[in-house]
Structure to design on (621 residues):
Protein backbone atom coordinates (compact mmCIF):
# COMPACT_ATOMS: atom_id res chain seq x y z
CA UNK A 1 0.00 0.00 0.00
CA UNK A 2 1.42 3.33 -1.05
CA UNK A 3 0.90 6.36 1.03
CA UNK A 4 -0.36 9.53 -0.51
CA UNK A 5 2.69 11.66 -1.12
CA UNK A 6 0.67 14.74 -1.96
CA UNK A 7 -0.56 15.23 1.61
CA UNK A 8 2.91 15.07 3.18
CA UNK A 9 5.25 17.90 4.04
CA UNK A 10 8.98 17.80 3.30
CA UNK A 11 9.56 17.18 6.98
CA UNK A 12 7.33 14.11 6.92
CA UNK A 13 8.96 12.83 3.79
CA UNK A 14 12.38 13.28 5.37
CA UNK A 15 11.23 11.36 8.44
CA UNK A 16 10.02 8.52 6.26
CA UNK A 17 13.29 8.43 4.34
CA UNK A 18 15.27 8.27 7.54
CA UNK A 19 13.07 5.38 8.64
CA UNK A 20 13.86 3.54 5.43
CA UNK A 21 10.37 3.94 4.04
CA UNK A 22 10.86 4.96 0.45
CA UNK A 23 7.58 3.82 -1.06
CA UNK A 24 5.87 6.79 -2.68
CA UNK A 25 8.72 9.15 -1.83
CA UNK A 26 10.71 11.03 -4.39
CA UNK A 27 14.10 10.83 -2.77
CA UNK A 28 15.77 13.45 -4.95
CA UNK A 29 13.05 15.96 -4.18
CA UNK A 30 13.54 15.45 -0.45
CA UNK A 31 17.30 15.76 -0.71
CA UNK A 32 16.97 18.97 -2.69
CA UNK A 33 14.65 20.41 -0.09
CA UNK A 34 17.09 19.39 2.60
CA UNK A 35 19.93 21.18 0.87
CA UNK A 36 17.96 24.39 0.60
CA UNK A 37 16.04 24.55 3.88
CA UNK A 38 18.05 25.27 7.10
CA UNK A 39 15.08 24.28 9.31
CA UNK A 40 14.92 20.94 7.57
CA UNK A 41 18.65 20.52 8.10
CA UNK A 42 18.23 21.17 11.83
CA UNK A 43 15.39 18.69 11.92
CA UNK A 44 17.57 16.15 10.16
CA UNK A 45 20.34 16.63 12.75
CA UNK A 46 17.92 16.34 15.68
CA UNK A 47 16.38 13.21 14.26
CA UNK A 48 19.78 11.63 13.77
CA UNK A 49 20.79 12.49 17.33
CA UNK A 50 17.61 10.99 18.65
CA UNK A 51 18.14 7.84 16.63
CA UNK A 52 21.66 7.62 17.99
CA UNK A 53 20.28 7.74 21.48
CA UNK A 54 17.83 4.96 20.78
CA UNK A 55 20.03 2.71 18.72
CA UNK A 56 21.28 -0.56 20.12
CA UNK A 57 18.96 -0.43 23.05
CA UNK A 58 17.46 -3.90 22.79
CA UNK A 59 17.57 -5.48 26.22
CA UNK A 60 18.24 -9.13 26.88
CA UNK A 61 15.97 -10.65 29.50
CA UNK A 62 17.72 -12.26 32.45
CA UNK A 63 17.83 -16.04 32.41
CA UNK A 64 15.67 -16.33 35.51
CA UNK A 65 12.74 -15.09 33.44
CA UNK A 66 13.27 -17.85 30.91
CA UNK A 67 13.45 -20.45 33.66
CA UNK A 68 10.30 -19.05 35.16
CA UNK A 69 8.46 -19.28 31.86
CA UNK A 70 9.67 -22.83 31.25
CA UNK A 71 8.62 -23.88 34.72
CA UNK A 72 5.26 -22.24 34.22
CA UNK A 73 4.47 -24.03 30.98
CA UNK A 74 5.80 -27.38 32.18
CA UNK A 75 8.80 -27.52 29.89
CA UNK A 76 11.42 -26.64 32.37
CA UNK A 77 11.70 -27.56 35.94
CA UNK A 78 15.05 -26.67 37.26
CA UNK A 79 18.24 -27.74 38.86
CA UNK A 80 19.00 -31.43 38.96
CA UNK A 81 15.70 -32.45 37.45
CA UNK A 82 16.09 -29.94 34.65
CA UNK A 83 19.64 -31.08 34.10
CA UNK A 84 18.59 -34.72 33.84
CA UNK A 85 15.84 -33.97 31.41
CA UNK A 86 17.90 -31.78 29.16
CA UNK A 87 21.13 -33.65 28.88
CA UNK A 88 22.14 -37.15 27.98
CA UNK A 89 20.05 -38.34 30.89
CA UNK A 90 16.83 -37.37 29.18
CA UNK A 91 15.69 -40.95 28.87
CA UNK A 92 16.52 -41.66 32.49
CA UNK A 93 14.76 -38.49 33.55
CA UNK A 94 11.66 -39.42 31.58
CA UNK A 95 11.65 -42.90 33.01
CA UNK A 96 12.07 -41.68 36.55
CA UNK A 97 9.25 -39.23 36.01
CA UNK A 98 6.85 -41.89 34.77
CA UNK A 99 4.51 -43.89 36.98
CA UNK A 100 6.27 -47.08 35.97
CA UNK A 101 9.57 -45.56 36.97
CA UNK A 102 8.21 -44.48 40.31
CA UNK A 103 6.78 -47.95 40.91
CA UNK A 104 10.06 -49.63 40.00
CA UNK A 105 12.02 -47.31 42.24
CA UNK A 106 9.62 -47.82 45.13
CA UNK A 107 9.76 -51.59 44.76
CA UNK A 108 13.53 -51.59 44.52
CA UNK A 109 13.87 -49.40 47.56
CA UNK A 110 11.46 -51.62 49.48
CA UNK A 111 13.36 -54.78 48.71
CA UNK A 112 16.71 -53.16 49.26
CA UNK A 113 15.72 -51.60 52.55
CA UNK A 114 14.32 -54.91 53.76
CA UNK A 115 17.59 -56.59 52.99
CA UNK A 116 19.63 -53.79 54.43
CA UNK A 117 17.66 -53.55 57.60
CA UNK A 118 18.10 -57.23 58.33
CA UNK A 119 20.95 -57.61 60.76
CA UNK A 120 23.00 -60.37 59.23
CA UNK A 121 24.83 -61.69 62.26
CA UNK A 122 27.25 -64.47 61.68
CA UNK A 123 25.18 -66.90 63.68
CA UNK A 124 26.50 -70.37 63.12
CA UNK A 125 24.00 -72.72 61.67
CA UNK A 126 24.15 -76.41 62.31
CA UNK A 127 25.14 -77.45 58.91
CA UNK A 128 27.50 -79.72 57.21
CA UNK A 129 28.33 -77.33 54.45
CA UNK A 130 31.86 -76.41 53.76
CA UNK A 131 31.29 -72.81 54.79
CA UNK A 132 30.16 -73.77 58.23
CA UNK A 133 33.07 -76.02 58.65
CA UNK A 134 35.51 -73.32 57.76
CA UNK A 135 33.89 -71.05 60.29
CA UNK A 136 34.41 -73.63 62.93
CA UNK A 137 37.98 -73.99 61.94
CA UNK A 138 38.34 -70.28 62.25
CA UNK A 139 37.11 -70.43 65.80
CA UNK A 140 39.58 -73.10 66.47
CA UNK A 141 42.40 -71.24 64.86
CA UNK A 142 41.61 -67.97 66.53
CA UNK A 143 41.76 -69.47 69.98
CA UNK A 144 44.79 -68.71 72.01
CA UNK A 145 47.25 -71.49 71.49
CA UNK A 146 48.49 -73.89 74.06
CA UNK A 147 51.48 -75.79 72.94
CA UNK A 148 51.31 -79.46 73.62
CA UNK A 149 53.49 -82.34 72.85
CA UNK A 150 51.58 -84.83 70.88
CA UNK A 151 52.70 -88.33 70.01
CA UNK A 152 51.96 -89.68 66.60
CA UNK A 153 51.27 -93.32 66.36
CA UNK A 154 49.95 -93.83 62.91
CA UNK A 155 52.24 -95.24 60.26
CA UNK A 156 50.18 -93.91 57.37
CA UNK A 157 51.90 -91.40 55.22
CA UNK A 158 50.14 -88.35 53.83
CA UNK A 159 51.94 -87.07 50.77
CA UNK A 160 49.54 -85.89 48.14
CA UNK A 161 46.06 -84.62 47.74
CA UNK A 162 45.04 -87.92 46.23
CA UNK A 163 45.95 -89.64 49.45
CA UNK A 164 43.95 -87.29 51.61
CA UNK A 165 40.78 -89.23 51.58
CA UNK A 166 42.54 -92.40 52.40
CA UNK A 167 44.65 -90.66 54.97
CA UNK A 168 41.65 -89.00 56.42
CA UNK A 169 40.06 -92.35 56.61
CA UNK A 170 43.08 -93.59 58.45
CA UNK A 171 42.84 -90.76 60.83
CA UNK A 172 39.22 -91.46 61.37
CA UNK A 173 40.03 -95.01 62.16
CA UNK A 174 42.41 -94.06 64.85
CA UNK A 175 41.45 -93.73 68.45
CA UNK A 176 41.24 -90.26 70.02
CA UNK A 177 41.37 -88.60 66.65
CA UNK A 178 41.01 -84.85 66.75
CA UNK A 179 39.13 -84.80 63.52
CA UNK A 180 36.75 -87.57 64.13
CA UNK A 181 35.96 -87.57 67.76
CA UNK A 182 36.09 -84.33 69.63
CA UNK A 183 35.04 -85.92 72.87
CA UNK A 184 37.99 -88.20 72.72
CA UNK A 185 40.20 -85.27 71.99
CA UNK A 186 38.84 -83.19 74.80
CA UNK A 187 39.57 -85.83 77.29
CA UNK A 188 42.95 -86.93 76.17
CA UNK A 189 44.34 -83.87 74.49
CA UNK A 190 46.07 -86.13 72.04
CA UNK A 191 46.25 -86.18 68.34
CA UNK A 192 47.04 -89.44 66.77
CA UNK A 193 49.21 -88.98 63.76
CA UNK A 194 51.28 -90.97 61.43
CA UNK A 195 54.65 -90.81 63.04
CA UNK A 196 56.29 -90.14 66.29
CA UNK A 197 57.23 -86.56 65.72
CA UNK A 198 56.17 -84.06 68.27
CA UNK A 199 53.92 -81.37 66.96
CA UNK A 200 51.84 -78.54 68.19
CA UNK A 201 48.24 -77.62 67.78
CA UNK A 202 46.51 -74.36 68.54
CA UNK A 203 43.65 -74.84 70.94
CA UNK A 204 42.41 -72.85 73.87
CA UNK A 205 41.41 -75.74 75.96
CA UNK A 206 39.55 -78.95 75.66
CA UNK A 207 36.22 -77.38 76.56
CA UNK A 208 36.45 -74.85 73.73
CA UNK A 209 37.29 -77.50 71.31
CA UNK A 210 34.41 -79.57 72.50
CA UNK A 211 32.00 -76.68 72.18
CA UNK A 212 33.29 -75.86 68.78
CA UNK A 213 32.89 -79.39 67.70
CA UNK A 214 29.42 -79.56 69.16
CA UNK A 215 28.44 -76.55 67.18
CA UNK A 216 28.58 -78.45 63.98
CA UNK A 217 27.73 -81.88 65.19
CA UNK A 218 29.57 -84.04 67.59
CA UNK A 219 31.10 -87.30 66.55
CA UNK A 220 30.22 -86.77 62.97
CA UNK A 221 32.15 -89.09 60.82
CA UNK A 222 32.33 -86.60 57.98
CA UNK A 223 32.02 -83.14 59.36
CA UNK A 224 34.40 -81.95 56.70
CA UNK A 225 31.82 -82.47 54.09
CA UNK A 226 33.84 -82.81 50.98
CA UNK A 227 32.82 -84.49 47.84
CA UNK A 228 36.16 -84.85 46.20
CA UNK A 229 39.81 -84.77 46.91
CA UNK A 230 40.24 -81.24 45.66
CA UNK A 231 37.74 -79.86 48.16
CA UNK A 232 39.31 -81.83 50.91
CA UNK A 233 42.68 -80.47 49.96
CA UNK A 234 41.24 -77.00 50.00
CA UNK A 235 39.99 -77.54 53.53
CA UNK A 236 43.38 -78.52 54.67
CA UNK A 237 44.97 -75.62 52.89
CA UNK A 238 42.68 -73.18 54.66
CA UNK A 239 43.59 -74.74 57.90
CA UNK A 240 47.16 -73.72 57.19
CA UNK A 241 48.53 -77.09 57.99
CA UNK A 242 52.11 -77.21 58.93
CA UNK A 243 54.69 -76.96 56.24
CA UNK A 244 55.87 -80.42 57.11
CA UNK A 245 52.56 -81.78 56.02
CA UNK A 246 52.69 -79.92 52.75
CA UNK A 247 56.14 -81.14 52.06
CA UNK A 248 54.98 -84.67 52.37
CA UNK A 249 56.71 -85.49 55.59
CA UNK A 250 54.85 -87.47 58.15
CA UNK A 251 54.20 -84.60 60.42
CA UNK A 252 50.60 -85.45 61.12
CA UNK A 253 47.48 -83.36 61.21
CA UNK A 254 48.81 -80.32 62.96
CA UNK A 255 47.85 -76.69 62.95
CA UNK A 256 50.78 -74.34 63.03
CA UNK A 257 49.85 -71.60 65.52
CA UNK A 258 51.85 -69.01 63.69
CA UNK A 259 49.86 -69.68 60.57
CA UNK A 260 46.52 -70.21 62.06
CA UNK A 261 43.55 -69.12 60.07
CA UNK A 262 42.90 -65.42 60.06
CA UNK A 263 39.69 -65.49 58.09
CA UNK A 264 37.47 -62.50 58.83
CA UNK A 265 33.80 -63.21 59.26
CA UNK A 266 32.52 -59.94 60.51
CA UNK A 267 29.95 -58.76 57.98
CA UNK A 268 30.86 -55.15 58.74
CA UNK A 269 34.24 -55.60 57.22
CA UNK A 270 32.73 -56.52 53.88
CA UNK A 271 30.59 -53.36 53.75
CA UNK A 272 33.10 -51.06 52.17
CA UNK A 273 30.65 -48.64 50.55
CA UNK A 274 27.72 -46.69 51.76
CA UNK A 275 25.11 -44.55 50.13
CA UNK A 276 24.15 -41.45 52.04
CA UNK A 277 21.00 -39.48 51.44
CA UNK A 278 20.59 -36.27 53.34
CA UNK A 279 18.18 -33.43 53.62
CA UNK A 280 19.39 -29.89 54.11
CA UNK A 281 17.46 -27.40 56.13
CA UNK A 282 19.55 -24.30 56.09
CA UNK A 283 19.21 -20.69 55.14
CA UNK A 284 21.43 -17.98 53.89
CA UNK A 285 22.98 -15.57 56.31
CA UNK A 286 22.06 -12.85 53.83
CA UNK A 287 18.57 -11.97 52.75
CA UNK A 288 17.98 -11.85 49.03
CA UNK A 289 16.29 -8.89 47.38
CA UNK A 290 14.97 -11.18 44.69
CA UNK A 291 13.63 -14.66 45.00
CA UNK A 292 13.44 -17.02 42.10
CA UNK A 293 9.96 -17.72 40.90
CA UNK A 294 10.44 -21.42 40.50
CA UNK A 295 10.08 -23.98 43.21
CA UNK A 296 11.80 -27.19 42.18
CA UNK A 297 10.52 -30.46 43.51
CA UNK A 298 13.94 -31.80 44.23
CA UNK A 299 15.80 -29.34 46.34
CA UNK A 300 17.88 -29.09 49.46
CA UNK A 301 19.14 -32.61 49.15
CA UNK A 302 22.49 -34.34 48.97
CA UNK A 303 23.44 -37.81 47.81
CA UNK A 304 26.83 -39.28 48.55
CA UNK A 305 28.62 -42.49 47.70
CA UNK A 306 31.29 -43.13 50.31
CA UNK A 307 34.11 -45.61 50.60
CA UNK A 308 35.22 -46.84 54.02
CA UNK A 309 38.94 -46.34 54.24
CA UNK A 310 38.84 -47.76 57.73
CA UNK A 311 36.31 -48.14 60.51
CA UNK A 312 36.24 -44.42 61.21
CA UNK A 313 37.17 -42.67 58.01
CA UNK A 314 35.15 -42.53 54.82
CA UNK A 315 35.92 -40.80 51.55
CA UNK A 316 33.57 -40.27 48.65
CA UNK A 317 31.65 -38.01 46.33
CA UNK A 318 28.56 -36.04 47.16
CA UNK A 319 26.14 -34.10 44.98
CA UNK A 320 23.13 -32.00 45.72
CA UNK A 321 21.35 -28.76 45.13
CA UNK A 322 20.06 -25.88 47.14
CA UNK A 323 19.51 -22.15 46.89
CA UNK A 324 22.40 -19.75 47.34
CA UNK A 325 22.15 -16.00 47.57
CA UNK A 326 24.34 -14.48 44.88
CA UNK A 327 24.88 -10.96 43.70
CA UNK A 328 23.60 -10.24 40.22
CA UNK A 329 23.56 -7.22 37.98
CA UNK A 330 20.12 -6.09 36.98
CA UNK A 331 19.91 -3.70 34.06
CA UNK A 332 16.88 -1.54 34.31
CA UNK A 333 16.19 1.25 31.93
CA UNK A 334 16.81 3.78 34.60
CA UNK A 335 19.90 2.28 36.03
CA UNK A 336 22.17 -0.69 36.47
CA UNK A 337 21.63 -2.15 39.89
CA UNK A 338 23.30 -4.85 41.91
CA UNK A 339 20.83 -7.14 43.57
CA UNK A 340 20.96 -10.25 45.70
CA UNK A 341 19.19 -13.15 44.05
CA UNK A 342 18.37 -16.50 45.57
CA UNK A 343 19.68 -18.80 42.88
CA UNK A 344 19.25 -22.52 42.60
CA UNK A 345 22.71 -24.05 42.64
CA UNK A 346 23.87 -27.54 41.81
CA UNK A 347 26.91 -28.57 43.78
CA UNK A 348 29.21 -31.56 44.07
CA UNK A 349 32.57 -32.48 45.45
CA UNK A 350 34.88 -34.70 47.40
CA UNK A 351 33.60 -35.50 50.86
CA UNK A 352 35.38 -36.89 53.89
CA UNK A 353 33.57 -38.31 56.90
CA UNK A 354 35.12 -39.11 60.23
CA UNK A 355 33.29 -40.97 62.96
CA UNK A 356 34.67 -40.90 66.49
CA UNK A 357 34.07 -44.54 67.30
CA UNK A 358 35.77 -44.30 70.65
CA UNK A 359 33.55 -41.48 71.85
CA UNK A 360 30.22 -43.23 72.21
CA UNK A 361 27.46 -41.13 73.68
CA UNK A 362 24.86 -42.76 75.95
CA UNK A 363 24.99 -45.96 73.95
CA UNK A 364 27.79 -47.42 71.92
CA UNK A 365 25.70 -46.98 68.78
CA UNK A 366 25.54 -43.20 69.09
CA UNK A 367 28.75 -41.50 68.13
CA UNK A 368 29.94 -38.05 67.12
CA UNK A 369 30.97 -37.47 63.55
CA UNK A 370 32.22 -34.71 61.34
CA UNK A 371 32.45 -34.21 57.63
CA UNK A 372 34.03 -31.87 55.14
CA UNK A 373 33.21 -31.35 51.48
CA UNK A 374 35.27 -29.42 48.98
CA UNK A 375 33.90 -29.05 45.50
CA UNK A 376 32.29 -26.90 42.88
CA UNK A 377 28.96 -25.51 41.85
CA UNK A 378 27.58 -24.31 38.57
CA UNK A 379 28.52 -20.82 39.74
CA UNK A 380 31.83 -21.29 41.52
CA UNK A 381 33.20 -23.29 44.40
CA UNK A 382 31.72 -24.63 47.57
CA UNK A 383 32.86 -25.98 50.92
CA UNK A 384 30.66 -27.67 53.44
CA UNK A 385 31.59 -28.52 56.97
CA UNK A 386 29.35 -30.31 59.40
CA UNK A 387 29.47 -31.98 62.78
CA UNK A 388 26.85 -34.05 64.47
CA UNK A 389 25.82 -37.44 65.70
CA UNK A 390 25.48 -40.73 63.92
CA UNK A 391 23.36 -43.58 65.23
CA UNK A 392 23.87 -47.12 63.99
CA UNK A 393 20.42 -48.61 63.67
CA UNK A 394 21.94 -51.84 62.41
CA UNK A 395 25.20 -52.88 60.87
CA UNK A 396 23.90 -51.62 57.55
CA UNK A 397 21.81 -48.63 58.41
CA UNK A 398 22.78 -45.45 60.18
CA UNK A 399 20.99 -42.20 60.81
CA UNK A 400 22.80 -38.93 61.20
CA UNK A 401 22.05 -35.30 61.93
CA UNK A 402 23.88 -32.16 62.83
CA UNK A 403 24.58 -28.54 61.99
CA UNK A 404 26.25 -27.63 58.73
CA UNK A 405 28.09 -24.56 57.52
CA UNK A 406 28.27 -23.94 53.80
CA UNK A 407 30.35 -21.41 51.97
CA UNK A 408 29.88 -20.73 48.29
CA UNK A 409 32.43 -18.79 46.31
CA UNK A 410 31.58 -17.21 42.97
CA UNK A 411 32.77 -14.60 40.50
CA UNK A 412 31.02 -11.30 40.34
CA UNK A 413 32.30 -8.37 38.32
CA UNK A 414 35.75 -9.94 38.20
CA UNK A 415 35.81 -10.33 41.97
CA UNK A 416 35.58 -13.43 44.07
CA UNK A 417 32.70 -13.19 46.50
CA UNK A 418 31.43 -15.59 49.09
CA UNK A 419 27.98 -16.48 50.31
CA UNK A 420 27.29 -18.40 53.48
CA UNK A 421 24.57 -20.69 54.75
CA UNK A 422 23.98 -22.30 58.07
CA UNK A 423 21.50 -24.91 59.12
CA UNK A 424 20.78 -28.52 59.81
CA UNK A 425 21.47 -31.68 57.87
CA UNK A 426 19.83 -35.00 58.52
CA UNK A 427 19.74 -38.28 56.68
CA UNK A 428 20.62 -41.91 56.57
CA UNK A 429 23.40 -44.08 55.34
CA UNK A 430 23.06 -47.53 53.84
CA UNK A 431 26.18 -49.67 53.85
CA UNK A 432 26.74 -52.33 51.25
CA UNK B 1 21.39 -36.74 14.29
CA UNK B 2 19.80 -33.84 16.13
CA UNK B 3 18.06 -31.06 14.22
CA UNK B 4 19.51 -27.63 13.91
CA UNK B 5 16.63 -25.61 15.25
CA UNK B 6 18.23 -22.31 14.32
CA UNK B 7 17.50 -22.96 10.66
CA UNK B 8 13.84 -23.89 11.12
CA UNK B 9 11.21 -21.32 10.21
CA UNK B 10 9.03 -19.62 12.79
CA UNK B 11 5.91 -21.33 11.50
CA UNK B 12 7.47 -24.77 11.75
CA UNK B 13 8.79 -24.08 15.23
CA UNK B 14 5.38 -22.92 16.28
CA UNK B 15 3.88 -26.13 14.94
CA UNK B 16 6.45 -28.14 16.89
CA UNK B 17 5.39 -26.49 20.13
CA UNK B 18 2.43 -28.83 20.29
CA UNK B 19 4.52 -31.90 19.49
CA UNK B 20 6.63 -34.10 21.71
CA UNK B 21 7.98 -32.56 24.89
CA UNK B 22 11.56 -32.75 23.71
CA UNK B 23 10.83 -31.03 20.38
CA UNK B 24 8.48 -28.62 22.07
CA UNK B 25 11.17 -27.56 24.50
CA UNK B 26 13.76 -27.04 21.78
CA UNK B 27 11.33 -25.20 19.54
CA UNK B 28 10.32 -22.94 22.40
CA UNK B 29 13.94 -22.25 23.28
CA UNK B 30 14.68 -21.24 19.72
CA UNK B 31 11.66 -18.95 19.42
CA UNK B 32 12.52 -17.47 22.79
CA UNK B 33 16.07 -16.85 21.62
CA UNK B 34 14.82 -15.09 18.50
CA UNK B 35 12.18 -12.84 20.00
CA UNK B 36 12.70 -12.47 23.72
CA UNK B 37 14.91 -9.33 23.42
CA UNK B 38 12.27 -7.58 21.32
CA UNK B 39 9.43 -8.47 23.60
CA UNK B 40 11.41 -7.72 26.71
CA UNK B 41 12.45 -4.34 25.39
CA UNK B 42 8.89 -3.56 24.38
CA UNK B 43 7.57 -4.43 27.84
CA UNK B 44 10.18 -2.39 29.61
CA UNK B 45 9.94 0.66 27.41
CA UNK B 46 6.19 0.76 27.33
CA UNK B 47 5.68 0.06 31.02
CA UNK B 48 8.84 1.64 32.43
CA UNK B 49 8.39 -0.54 35.47
CA UNK B 50 10.91 -3.36 35.90
CA UNK B 51 8.95 -5.89 37.94
CA UNK B 52 5.75 -5.28 36.04
CA UNK B 53 7.58 -5.58 32.74
CA UNK B 54 9.12 -8.85 33.87
CA UNK B 55 5.68 -10.19 34.74
CA UNK B 56 4.19 -9.15 31.43
CA UNK B 57 7.14 -10.56 29.54
CA UNK B 58 6.77 -13.95 31.21
CA UNK B 59 3.04 -13.91 30.78
CA UNK B 60 3.48 -13.15 27.09
CA UNK B 61 5.55 -16.26 26.46
CA UNK B 62 3.35 -18.38 28.67
CA UNK B 63 0.23 -17.38 26.71
CA UNK B 64 2.10 -17.80 23.48
CA UNK B 65 2.98 -21.39 24.35
CA UNK B 66 -0.52 -22.14 25.56
CA UNK B 67 -2.00 -20.83 22.34
CA UNK B 68 0.21 -23.14 20.32
CA UNK B 69 -1.64 -26.10 21.72
CA UNK B 70 -4.93 -24.67 20.54
CA UNK B 71 -4.01 -23.41 17.11
CA UNK B 72 -1.12 -25.09 15.37
CA UNK B 73 -0.85 -22.68 12.44
CA UNK B 74 0.91 -19.37 12.71
CA UNK B 75 2.32 -17.30 9.91
CA UNK B 76 3.61 -14.31 11.84
CA UNK B 77 5.08 -15.44 15.14
CA UNK B 78 6.83 -12.19 15.96
CA UNK B 79 3.69 -10.19 15.29
CA UNK B 80 1.64 -12.56 17.37
CA UNK B 81 4.06 -12.35 20.27
CA UNK B 82 4.03 -8.60 20.05
CA UNK B 83 0.26 -8.55 19.98
CA UNK B 84 0.08 -10.60 23.17
CA UNK B 85 2.69 -8.43 24.87
CA UNK B 86 0.93 -5.28 23.73
CA UNK B 87 -2.44 -6.35 25.04
CA UNK B 88 -0.97 -7.35 28.35
CA UNK B 89 1.14 -4.22 28.76
CA UNK B 90 -1.56 -1.79 27.77
CA UNK B 91 -4.12 -3.46 29.99
CA UNK B 92 -1.72 -3.39 32.86
CA UNK B 93 -0.81 0.19 32.20
CA UNK B 94 -4.46 1.17 32.07
CA UNK B 95 -5.03 -0.46 35.43
CA UNK B 96 -2.18 1.25 37.18
CA UNK B 97 -1.74 4.64 35.64
CA UNK B 98 -3.54 7.41 33.96
CA UNK B 99 -2.98 7.40 30.28
CA UNK B 100 -0.57 10.24 29.97
CA UNK B 101 1.39 12.91 31.69
CA UNK B 102 0.84 16.44 30.59
CA UNK B 103 3.73 17.55 28.43
CA UNK B 104 3.39 21.03 29.82
CA UNK B 105 3.81 19.80 33.35
CA UNK B 106 6.75 17.65 32.54
CA UNK B 107 10.01 18.69 34.03
CA UNK B 108 13.01 16.92 32.71
CA UNK B 109 15.88 16.51 35.14
CA UNK B 110 18.85 18.76 34.80
CA UNK B 111 22.09 17.10 33.90
CA UNK B 112 25.66 18.10 33.74
CA UNK B 113 27.17 18.46 30.35
CA UNK B 114 28.97 15.17 30.65
CA UNK B 115 26.39 12.65 29.64
CA UNK B 116 26.85 8.98 29.87
CA UNK B 117 24.68 6.20 28.58
CA UNK B 118 22.76 5.88 31.77
CA UNK B 119 21.83 9.54 31.89
CA UNK B 120 20.81 9.53 28.29
CA UNK B 121 18.66 6.51 28.85
CA UNK B 122 16.95 8.18 31.76
CA UNK B 123 16.42 11.27 29.69
CA UNK B 124 14.95 9.34 26.82
CA UNK B 125 12.74 7.21 29.02
CA UNK B 126 11.39 10.28 30.72
CA UNK B 127 10.54 11.73 27.35
CA UNK B 128 8.93 8.47 26.26
CA UNK B 129 6.85 8.35 29.41
CA UNK B 130 5.59 11.80 28.65
CA UNK B 131 4.13 10.63 25.37
CA UNK B 132 0.57 9.39 25.01
CA UNK B 133 0.67 5.62 24.83
CA UNK B 134 -0.24 5.42 21.14
CA UNK B 135 2.83 7.53 20.30
CA UNK B 136 5.08 5.83 22.79
CA UNK B 137 4.25 2.47 21.39
CA UNK B 138 5.03 3.24 17.79
CA UNK B 139 8.32 4.85 18.73
CA UNK B 140 9.33 1.76 20.68
CA UNK B 141 8.38 -0.51 17.80
CA UNK B 142 10.10 1.64 15.22
CA UNK B 143 13.22 2.79 17.00
CA UNK B 144 13.97 0.03 19.46
CA UNK B 145 12.60 -2.97 17.61
CA UNK B 146 13.42 -1.67 14.15
CA UNK B 147 10.06 -2.64 12.69
CA UNK B 148 8.89 -1.25 9.37
CA UNK B 149 5.78 0.85 9.10
CA UNK B 150 4.00 -2.11 7.54
CA UNK B 151 4.94 -4.44 10.38
CA UNK B 152 3.89 -1.89 12.94
CA UNK B 153 0.58 -1.40 11.18
CA UNK B 154 -0.03 -5.14 11.24
CA UNK B 155 0.95 -5.43 14.85
CA UNK B 156 -1.32 -2.59 15.89
CA UNK B 157 -4.15 -3.52 13.56
CA UNK B 158 -4.08 -0.17 11.89
CA UNK B 159 -3.03 1.40 8.62
CA UNK B 160 0.36 2.55 7.43
CA UNK B 161 -0.63 6.24 7.11
CA UNK B 162 -1.76 6.23 10.70
CA UNK B 163 1.49 4.64 11.75
CA UNK B 164 3.47 7.17 9.74
CA UNK B 165 1.62 10.08 11.28
CA UNK B 166 1.97 8.73 14.80
CA UNK B 167 5.68 8.16 14.37
CA UNK B 168 6.19 11.58 12.93
CA UNK B 169 4.29 13.26 15.73
CA UNK B 170 5.94 11.15 18.39
CA UNK B 171 9.38 12.05 17.15
CA UNK B 172 8.40 15.66 16.98
CA UNK B 173 7.34 15.62 20.62
CA UNK B 174 10.46 13.86 21.74
CA UNK B 175 12.66 16.26 19.83
CA UNK B 176 10.77 19.12 21.36
CA UNK B 177 11.37 17.73 24.84
CA UNK B 178 14.99 16.93 24.23
CA UNK B 179 15.86 20.01 22.19
CA UNK B 180 17.59 21.78 25.10
CA UNK B 181 19.88 18.84 25.48
CA UNK B 182 20.68 18.15 21.87
CA UNK B 183 23.42 20.72 21.70
CA UNK B 184 25.05 19.29 24.78
CA UNK B 185 24.86 15.73 23.60
CA UNK B 186 25.71 16.28 20.00
CA UNK B 187 29.09 14.69 20.56
CA UNK B 188 27.47 11.57 21.90
CA UNK B 189 27.87 8.60 19.68
Amino acid sequence: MKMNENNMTDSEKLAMLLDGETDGIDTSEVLNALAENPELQQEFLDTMRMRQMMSGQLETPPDRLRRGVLAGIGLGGSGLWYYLQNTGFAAAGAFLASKVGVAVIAATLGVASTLFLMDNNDTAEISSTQTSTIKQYAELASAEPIEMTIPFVSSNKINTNESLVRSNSNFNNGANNIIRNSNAYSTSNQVVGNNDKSNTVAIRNSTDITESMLAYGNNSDNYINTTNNAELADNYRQLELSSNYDSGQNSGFIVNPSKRLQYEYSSDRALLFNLQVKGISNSSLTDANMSVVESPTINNIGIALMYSVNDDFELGLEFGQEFFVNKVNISTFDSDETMLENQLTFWGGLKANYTFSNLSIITEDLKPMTSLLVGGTNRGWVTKASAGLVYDVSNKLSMFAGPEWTTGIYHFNSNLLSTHKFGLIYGMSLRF
Amino acid sequence: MSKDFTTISDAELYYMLSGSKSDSKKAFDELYRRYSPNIYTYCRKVLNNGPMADDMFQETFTRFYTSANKDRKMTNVSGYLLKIARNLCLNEKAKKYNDKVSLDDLELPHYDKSYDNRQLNELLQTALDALPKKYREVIVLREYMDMSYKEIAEALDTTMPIVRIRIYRAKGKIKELLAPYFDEIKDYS
Observations:
- Residues 98-114 of chain B have pLDDT under 50 and may be disordered.
